[in-house]
Write a structure and sequence with these properties.
By secondary structure, the chain is of the alpha+beta class.
């Protein structure tokens, strides 16, 4: 089958191959060497499973229908499928659309290379992935009975039959009070009228079991592996179910078809997703923009708090639970939002772990702390819309799941924020899928959470029903989108639609934050209130900002005042502490007077003027500095000589007192320099006692061979590159061309005369030395006659290969040749050439 599919791929156009690689990007990681390798990947179990995960419920039902109508020759008729779907009331155009998508994914392909496209072949691994029950129907009754008796001819099945016959012969009453012999499922399946009568006579409990199995899959197992009893036992004894094990039954195909007589053999089909039934929200954009502004403010507050002293990084790389609670308490933001903001800031490069100048003692066995990066200083000077654009783009694309913070992992340990356990490669796909659901129901329409989940269950049925993971992430994505302002009043905002439609391709600017024309920023800017450049200073030393402050004003206020409340208007308060902080930052009293005089639309109250002057008058009365080492002595003349010694000028000594000098360098550096200059200093400790030093033996530290790096890599787990690979434009064309070129080379190599063992005139294989000598003669002939030659060689990795080239020259131990097909020049070492033959 691989060769037939490879022939179809070779016959496909470049555009068709490009569509295949776009729909299944994992096929291009790494780029296949040729078409045959691509065909192998197309049919591989992992790749096919990934392709099936992206199909909606109806397309999977159509694929199941093709499996059902597949004949003995392995071909499925599209016309037969259309007949069955028409009986179920499905439009043929919708079915053909699903079949065409399956063709594009190469899950099915035409049985004939050219001509009729009504007959399709299915990729072989589909039966393994989708199960042995096409369309949810069981196997024929004859096959089931044969399997049941072959697996246990004299065991439990024989005992069950003998017990049933014993009840019949002894006159034991059946369900209707009349002795009933056991019914043969094969005979019942061959009698349509008798089968219908048996179904009509089934008790309500038994009929409910049949209806459930008729929907598929047709297998049923007793709870807790208990023996069959009650309605299930009745169905087995009346031939409507076949017992395959003491606790396992299967519904015969003939019974399932009768039960599906209204919907058709394929059962109930679902060509359309469930309705969303949303509610129009005309104020969604306004509500979303307000929340977006609040999210930016919360992130700025959080990072500013971390910028004061940071927070310790745990040994596992995350943030401690108590530290998370402390941040939530000090900022007034709930813990879930704190975790979300931390993860977004980390993914956006606004937050990182850095060495701490003072290692914390006690519970934290690391000297690193979580601190804002220099990118944060640039980010906070941008407009609110541009700040939010970075946050939103990062959230949509980051492979982090903040909703996992606070939960317990497989080892029953709490998952911390910023830890490796929060990494999830499929998180961006779920977020995008959720926003796509909101975008399908019109603009500014709110959708109920359960309706969104039902839509996702139709769109991604295989992903959704696996352990409920997608449901958890989907609910989290809705909460996070509301917290960040991507949605407003449970509806996707207009700028949220722009965010969803973005497909950033630039490798050097993946988030598009440096784009000169940014539609997302412009759309949000129109909804936000205009930034203000003025304040209202009041007599109680409060400063009111009547709107969002412009970046420069926000920076100035953060330096001279403390924020008290935020909202439509932000209130700051000027305190002695805030004034001292401004003076410490380099402001003078005159600068502060000028700042409030320039920014305030109201007269500056005298209380503020007096406060600034009073704090400035006392500011700087005491000074604190640092020194790497000091030098003291009772002889002032000796200290004056040292201070004037030019040889000690690099130490930058300065006099603190008549008998004390200080230097920014370390005590060891000071001691060494003084001794080199001919002085005789001695070191002393903090108490003034002389320190006696002895030569210490040098020892190497304990080597740790990259354990932490390995732990990080293992902790993040497998992150699939194919999920992030976007093949578009020139890159896609280059990949297709590389595959085509490799296939041409591979096919040419298979036609090479060197593919067969070399023999002499008598058919006897020749030795390697004879083959090498013969190859040199052929190469000289090729150079003389300007003919193309097949050259067999061994590369630097020991791999044998062959290439069709036109020899140009040979000398110095090398062969120089040209490849007419690729217009490239090749050089072969003569000792690596194993054989050569003229091209015929």
């Amino acid at each position: 089958m691989t060769s037939k599919l490879a022939d179809h791929l070779r016959a496909a156009t470049d555009d068709e191959l490009g569509v295949l690689l776009q729909l299944r990007p994992d096929l291009a990681v790494p780029v296949p060497a040729d078409i045959s390798q691509l065909a192998g990947r197309v049919q591989s179990r992992v790749s096919v499973a990934r392709a099936l995960d992206g199909l909606d419920r109806f397309t999977l039902e159509v694929l199941d229908g093709l499996r059902y109508v597949r004949g003995e020759d392995g071909c499925a008729s599209v016309e037969t499928l259309l007949t069955l779907t028409a009986a179920a009331g499905v439009d043929s155009a919708r079915v053909r659309e699903a079949v065409e998508r399956l063709r594009q994914l190469r899950l099915v392909y035409n049985a004939q290379l050219h001509g009729d496209d009504n007959q399709l072949r299915l990729v072989g691994v589909l039966d393994e992935l989708l199960g042995p029950y096409p369309a949810g129907l069981g196997r024929p009754a004859a096959e089931l009975v044969e399997e049941a008796w072959s697996t246990s001819p004299n065991g439990w099945q024989g005992e069950r039959r003998r017990a049933a016959r014993s009840r019949a012969t002894s006159g034991e009453a059946g369900s209707a009070g009349v002795p009933e012999p056991p019914v043969d499922p094969v005979a019942l399946a061959a009698d349509p009228a008798g089968l219908r009568r048996a179904l009509l006579s089934a008790p309500p409990e038994a009929r409910a079991v049949l209806d459930r199995l008729a929907e598929g899959p047709p297998l049923g197992q007793a709870a807790s592996h208990a023996p069959l009893a009650g309605p299930v036992q009745w169905l087995v004894e009346h031939g409507l179910l076949v017992a395959l094990a003491p606790d396992l039954v299967e519904l015969p195909r003939e019974v399932g078809l009768v039960l599906r007589r209204d919907a058709g053999p394929l059962g109930q089909l679902h060509p359309s997703p469930p309705p969303l039934d949303g509610q129009h929200r005309p104020n969604a954009d306004a509500a979303g923009a307000g929340q977006a502004m609040e999210a930016v403010r919360q992130l700025d507050t959080l990072l500013a708090l971390l910028g004061e002293a940071g927070t310790p990084r745990l040994r596992t790389g995350g943030l401690g639970v108590r530290e998370l609670r402390r941040l939530a308490k000090e900022t007034g933001i709930d813990e879930a939002t704190i975790a979300l903001l931390l993860e977004v800031a980390y993914a956006a490069g606004l937050l990182a772990a850095a060495p701490s100048p003072e290692r914390p003692q006690g519970e934290y066995p690391t000297d690193e702390r979580w601190l804002p990066t220099p990118a944060y200083d640039t980010w906070r000077t941008a407009s609110i819309a541009r700040q939010w654009a970075l946050v939103a783009r990062t959230w949509l694309s980051m492979t982090r799941a903040p909703s996992l913070v606070g939960q317990r992992d497989d080892r029953d340990k709490v998952i911390g924020a910023l830890s490796v356990e929060v990494a999830r490669a499929n998180a961006p796909a779920v977020r995008r899928a959720v926003l796509e659901v909101l975008a399908t129901d019109g603009e500014s329409v709110s959708v109920d959470v359960e309706a969104v989940l039902a839509w996702l269950a139709w769109r991604y049925p295989r992903r959704y029903r696996r352990s409920g993971v997608m449901e958890h992430y989907a609910r989290a994505a809705l909460r996070e989108a509301a917290a960040l302002g991507v949605t407003g009043l449970d509806a996707l905002t207009s700028y949220g639609r722009i965010l969803l439609a973005e497909r950033p391709d630039a490798d050097d600017d993946p988030l598009g934050v440096r784009a000169e024309s940014d539609a997302l920023v412009a759309a949000l800017d129109r909804l936000l209130p205009a930034p203000v450049d003025h304040v209202l200073v009041q007599a109680d030393l409060t400063v009111v900002v009547p709107g969002p402050p412009e970046p420069t004003l926000a920076t100035e206020l953060a330096a001279v005042a403390d924020a008290e409340s935020r909202g439509g208007a932000t209130v700051f308060r000027v305190t002695p502490t805030s004034v001292r902080r401004a003076l410490d930052a380099g402001f003078t009293a005159a600068d502060l007077h000028a700042l409030f005089g320039r920014r305030s639309r109201t007269p500056v109250p005298q209380t503020l003027t007096y406060l600034i002057d009073d704090v400035a008058r006392r500011h700087g009365g005491l000074r604190v500095g640092t020194a790497g080492a000091y030098l003291r002595g009772d002889d002032e003349n000796l200290l004056a000589e040292v201070l004037a010694d030019r040889r000690l000028a690099p130490l930058a000594l300065r006099r603190l007192a008549p008998t004390v000098l200080a230097t920014p360098h370390t005590p060891a550096r000071l001691l060494s320099a003084l001794r080199d200059a001919g002085y005789a200093p001695v070191p002393e400790d903090a108490t003034g006692a002389v320190v006696v030093t002895r030569p210490a033996a040098n020892r190497a530290g304990v080597a740790r061979p990259g354990g932490e790096l390995f732990g990080l890599a293992a902790g993040f787990g497998y992150v699939d590159d194919a999920e992030r690979l976007q093949l578009t434009g020139p890159r896609l064309a280059a990949v297709v061309e590389q595959i085509r070129r490799g296939d041409r080379i591979a096919r040419a190599a298979r036609r090479s005369p060197l593919a067969k063992p070399l023999v002499d005139e008598n058919g006897t294989p020749i030795s390697a030395s004879q083959a090498h000598a013969q190859a040199l003669a052929v190469l000289r002939q090729g150079i003389t006659e300007r003919k193309r030659v097949w050259v067999g060689y061994v590369d630097a990795h020991g791999t044998t290969g062959s290439r069709l080239v036109r020899p140009v020259s040979m000398g110095g131990g090398f062969l120089h040749a040209e490849d007419d097909r690729s217009q490239t020049r090749h050089t072969f070492a003569l000792h690596r050439i194993t054989a050569a033959a003229l091209d015929t």
